[in-house]
Amino acid sequence: MKYLSRAIRAWYGASPLHLLALLAAFALAGYAVRAVVAAHQWRGFALWFALAIIGHDLLLFPLYSVADLSARRFLPTRPLVPVINYLRVPAGFALLLLMVWFPLILGLSATTYGRASGLGTGSYLWRWLAVTGVMFALSALAYAIALRRAAKREVPPARMRSSRRDPGA
Prior knowledge:
By secondary structure, the chain is mostly helical. The chain has three domains: 40 residues; 34 residues; 78 residues, no CATH class. The chain has seven helices and no strands. It is flat.
């Protein structure tokens, strides 16, 4: 079994589990495309796919790249634990939620949604703000824990000098 695993790793360049996961992802994508084509909705799917590529690669990627660069410029240069990922993750999830639910969060579909469900859209903004606040609070807690662990691991320079033996003594 180990010989087979080594042979696959030598041929493929990664573990057999990675290859299996990749094949499963391609199978799922193929099934999704087949289902869309079988339902004769390929034009809408192709339009959505093209707009998603244009929207992400030409509009969103440059915007959040500039936002990330500017955020890193204002953050400390050499902290014990880099803070950027503790800001990226909750901000990314908050923006993803906003992109998916923006008509309800901003109240743009109040009449349509209200007629279809019988509910109002007034609470969506406050719930999105609450979820965003909780995500940033949990991220701040995780950063504080990581910072404390890093501070415990780091040996102060004064201790390092005193613990070394003096070769001249």
